[in-house]
Amino acid sequence: MKIGIIAPANSIIGEKNINIFNEALKLLEKNGFEVIIGKNVFSDSECYCGTIDEKIEDIYEVALKAKYIICATGGINSNNILNKLDFNRIKENVFIGNSNPILLFNALYSINKQVSYIGPNIKTIGKNKSQFMIDCIKVITNGNNIILTEEPNIIINKGTGTGIAYGGNIQSLRRILGTKYFPKIDNSIIYLEADPTETNHTEYKSIINQLIQNNIFEKCNGLIIGKYDDIDFIKQIYKDFKMPIIICNNLGHNVNNNTLPIGKEIKINEDGSIEVL
After folding, report:
1. Which CATH architecture has domain 2-141?
2. With a threshold of 0.85, does the pTM exceed it?
3. Could you read off the pLDDT of 145-177 as tens digits, one per residue?
4. Which among 63, 46, 60 is positioned nearest to 11, based on CA atoms?
5. 195 with 99: CB under 8 angstroms?
């Protein structure tokens, strides 16, 4: 199975990061994947993030060679490519990744009704050396509709809810809020996750209130929260929400990521499990 690698946010720069990247390649190849790397994944231009043209060139070229594409790492600037990207050229591809690249995935659904997956970045695979993450990628490349879990989900508000899933890293979602790239869904399940080292309590609360002020939760049937360092804080933030809410410990930063669909209908069950419908 061919799998492509692109860097829509940060590039892979520096000996340490390159070594981590290579560890991920070894693990993917060991599991039978033929890896196709975009030529600009290691670009040191534009403050070590690559130019818009370099990023888009990689997306188009890798998309021609591999249906499934994994993002190299996170960052802050994937939104820079959106206005120049020809979404029609990549509508048959399936993208996997976490952190900042999820804003691209949400845009893919908004523009193309295209399914992507919040899942491991290449750097996360290399850093954690987790077979679980590889197995989750295999679920997607094998065309299966199951969600693997390594750690049990935590129920915040018990109940059931179904809807089209979207969302992801809250710092990244706010970069497309109010644009045509932010999905507009009548019945949704929303993923919300944040890196505790980059999004403290004050910032987290500010972003959630920004989403509230934009009426994002009015047509939401459930929330799936990423792993965070303070469960009591999470409970306090969402205490007035009248919908099923769970914490998924395989969603977020510095965790072994599973693969959660953006653009598919999913269900939060009474026991806190998640299934694709």
Report:
1. 3-Layer(aba) Sandwich (3.40)
2. yes
3. 999 999 899 999 999 999 999 999 999 999 999
4. 46
5. yes
